[in-house]
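Box 3.1 — From sequence to structure: Glycosyltransferase family 2 protein
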Amino acid sequence: MKISVVIPCYNVEKYVSRCIESVLKQNISKQDFEILAINDGSTDKTLQILRGYEEKYSHIRVINQMNKGLGETRNIGIENVESDYIAFLDSDDWIDQDYLKVLYSLAEEYSLDIVNSGFRRPKPNGEILFQSNLLDQESSFFTNGTAWGKLYRTQFLKEKQIRNRISAFGEDIIFNLDCFEAGAKFKTTEYIGYNWFINDESLTRSSRDEEKIVETCKIFYKALCETSAKINSYYIILYASATLFTANIGAKAFKELSKEMENISKERVTQKDYIKAIFTYDKGVAFKLKMGTLIYSLSTLTRITPLLGFLKISNKVKRK
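Predicted structure (token representation):
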């Protein structure tokens, strides 16, 4: 078996068929790939839909489990495949018809541990909000920190014992940084074949969620700051700015989180790192990320970051 497509599923009865159908339509032989769909304690008809596909197609397997969260579910996927490569696919997203073929061909041609590819961001009405423009350089691997949109060599993940080790926001970023620290050979392609769907239902929250959001962001940032010196401090600052400025929280929670992040990073990021980040220019980093990193660096140096919460126009920042 060449490729296993691992799909964690939780309450996605409206979207999971589209996701699975996109894999079934891949322009490679069905003998070359399998689908491992993992139902993570869904309370809707997701499991029923998955069982229907499993009965119909011999190269689809379903695992049913109590709810464990996305990271742990991906870990279970890694443990339950024997294929050459693993591709993670979120259950409300879908892939283009040539997605697996393109990524597999690159992995084999260059003997890669990871192939990193771009994505587009479709809205429910079909409009494309934006798409990534990645360059084949190291920074593109860091700034495109998702587990989806990539092809991983299974043997590499298992031999290096790389798994999702936090259950919080940014778990896939830490996963990829662990791959980098373990010496993964990777390549980024400009090809775009992954569709990261804007699912309004998964983006809504109530004010009661703010405490949980702040806590998960802190867990992520602590793990980030515990990475080795192999990870350039610029990327620590970049992820800090992205975490803080896009967190779906109000001004008060923003102030709390910014102070906690500053305390967490004291031993990992120095004033010199922030100054250097202000003047860093990297073509592989998207403009918005560059600007966010610059603003965060300036505000941290001048100690005004907690005051930036008032700039959040509303609590309706969309995040998946």
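Summary of the box: The longest strand covers residues 186-195.
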